[in-house]
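Field notebook, page 225. I keep forgetting to write these up properly, so this time I am using the form the group agreed on. The chain and the ligand, dinuclear copper ion, are recorded exactly as supplied. Prediction of the bound pose follows.
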Amino acid sequence: MATWSNFNFQNSTSPLMEQIIFFHDHTLIILIITTILVSYLMVSLFFNKYINRFLMESQMIELIWTILPAITLIFIALPSLRLLYLLDELNNPLITLKSIGHQWYWSYEYSDFNNVEFDSYMTQFNNNNNFRLLDVDNRIILPMNNQIRILITATDVIHSWTVPSLGVKVDASPGRLNQTSFFINRPGIFFGQCSEICGANHSFMPIVIESISIKNFINWINNYS
Ligand code: CUA
């Protein structure tokens, strides 16, 4: 989860978020190298004495400084496209969770299991028994090591179902049903927040996922009243 002064990504809890972090690092390295090169060239211009009498035009250098950036961009574009298509893949999900955004709370439906449904409101902070501004009364329970499909919609305005450690960020629009999927590869409690400015209490509709083993999940769903 996010804590104070955390400038970096949260640790990934899904293979796709891992890939997103790899791509981010890869792109940032290219960006840093480019910035350093361009800064060096700009600074060196200040110390140039402009004494070359014959250099009016040069096809060769123009060719090089046109093609080099183009090749650099291909090195970013191809991994980016690969990620984009990987994120869109469904991979035979085991269960489907439906998430509905409201002003200002989320509600969830496990449509595979005789309509298990509940609302998920943020809870009041009470002296370190819960997480301030991030905890909810009814958490999403999901089995780890399984492909999970999530369907996202809203009833009033646009919300956004966002869980950074899973690499999921999908808008919840009224009248639309958006779909994505993820795979949680470890047990734990993972937090998210709405990321679409949706009104006065936008900051107070967090998302909490409890990732447990499939055995405990079946137990939970069987005993759900
Ligand atoms: Cu819902 Cu912001």
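OBSERVATIONS:
- The pocket of dinuclear copper ion is lined by residues 101, 104, 159, 194, 196-198, 202, 205 (CB under 6 Å).
- The CA atoms of residues 148 and 210 lie 13 Å apart.
FOLLOW-UP: compare against the apo run.
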